[in-house]
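Worked example
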Amino acid sequence: MIKNILIVSAAVLIHISFTGALFSDEIKKYSIEQLQKAGFTSENMSKDAFLKLRNKVFEIPDYESGQFSIDKMKKIDAKGNKLKGYIATINGNCTSDPAEVFILASSDGNEYIVQRFDSLHASLDEILRDIDGDGNFEILVNEEIAGENTPRCNSFFWVNIYTWKEGGGFVIDNEKFIKSYYFKEYLNMISKRIAEAEHLLNMPEKDPDASKVKTIALSMLEDCRTALSKLSKLAEKK
């Protein structure tokens, strides 16, 4: 159904007039009329077609396009605001670690938003969530919190939360979730990191790795300070 899900291949996009728009921003808007002229509509979009759409819209050069692949992809079908479309996590630079979120969505079937975000260690199951149970999806985008000496296995992420705004796509809306998400999630994570760092700091001085481990522990504590600072600033805005 054209009002629910839209498929557009790279070949089709070439023949559509986008009123001179340059495909360099992180968010684009297309009317359904522009896309209807091409005659391509379907409820089922393949990974290949979705990736070609992403490459075309954001002007990914041919010599770079082969470096990207879709890790996971799923339909968006929100009961609250009737948002429908697709979302995918993208692997980049020939790695198997998704680093981008790509979205095609519409809440009215007339205007479609094409949008992408950089997100470290992107997991589709964690990215698209209904945090407050209102029937609408939020997008959770990872920003790594890691000091200079913090091992990857001990680092964690600061999550920016985006909500759908009619006509504007997904926009950052962290303040809305300070109690329902941030305090609930981060105070627990910070407590665990502090306990881990305390355990490392108790390593006997005679241990040959004591100095290295102490450096790691102090870096982990600095990460906790960074997270607490972010929480504090978020609370001030609220």
Observations:
- The chain has seven helices and nine strands.
- The beta strands are 27-31, 69-77, 84-91, 100-106, 111-118, 128-129, 138-145, 156-165, 169-172.
- Confidence is low (pLDDT under 50) at residues 1-25.
